[in-house]
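Work Package 3 committed the consortium to producing structural models of liganded targets before the mid-term review. Because experimental data for this complex are still outstanding, the team generated a predictive model from sequence and the ligand definition alone, so that downstream docking and mutagenesis planning could proceed in parallel. The input record is reproduced below exactly as it was submitted to the modelling pipeline, together with the SMILES string for adenosine-5'-triphosphate.
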Amino acid sequence: MPVKHVPVILAAMPDRDLAARRLLEVAEEELQRIVLDIHDGPVQNMFAALSQLSLLRARLPADSDPALNRAIALLELALNDIRNLLGAFHAPEFARRAIGEIVEDLAVQHEALTGGTASLEIAPALPDVSLPIKIAVYRILQEALSNIHRHAGTDSATVRVWADGDRLCLEVIDHGRGFQPPPLSGPEATERHEHIGLRGMRERAALVNGDICVDSRPGEGTRVRAEIPIHG
Ligand SMILES: Nc1ncnc2c1ncn2[C@@H]1O[C@H](COP(=O)(O)OP(=O)(O)OP(=O)(O)O)[C@@H](O)[C@H]1O
Ligand SMILES: [Mg+2]
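The resulting structure, written out as tokens with the ligand in place, is given here.
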């Protein structure tokens, strides 16, 4: 299905302040800290509870207590869910990795999680970009791939990264069911609760002075394009 181009330009925030970039880094650092706290605290205690219950079950005659089996199964399920969630938020070490590698790893992770395919077109010799740009690209790509998996009715995506003059460009394309994108900027911009993912992509781009453009139409697939100035 061809993607028709009905661009919805989400304008960059005018604020080119360094503080905005710092905010992005701080938010990411805090997210990583929360991930680690959850992993090192409650998750470890849940594992301990699971092993205690498993020991208890081993001491009892087989299937003597169905409630115990249910409790163990629920704990296993909860731990699995938390692990998947933490995995999605635990970003790789951005600082020492090139943008191409970061994108490639995320695409591979997406394929492993969904069983789908993410075809990569990463331009050779991409310029080095700042940490906030790497974080923005990672989070935008993560949301775009997650939206494809959850809403597009397909798990095939194409991911492109290239530099156009002083701009780093990211495109995530699917040929799934498409949708009517809500206005995300200007006086009509949606504040609806169910559009947090799309608004988040716009804000991630805006924090590094970039733009997001969502081209989509029902039945015609979706193209999310981010353009970010490499030198601020
Ligand atoms: N690639 C896509 N294909 C089809 N529909 C999409 C796609 N991306 C987004 N949508 C539609 O746009 C809506 C809003 O997307 P958005 O990411 O803002 O929210 P969400 O994914 O529903 O929830 P979340 O806040 O967890 O991201 C989705 O509910 C879906 O209907
Ligand atoms: Mg979403």
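Reviewers should note the following from the model. Residues 3 and 220 are 5 Å apart (CA to CA). These observations will guide the Year 2 experiments.
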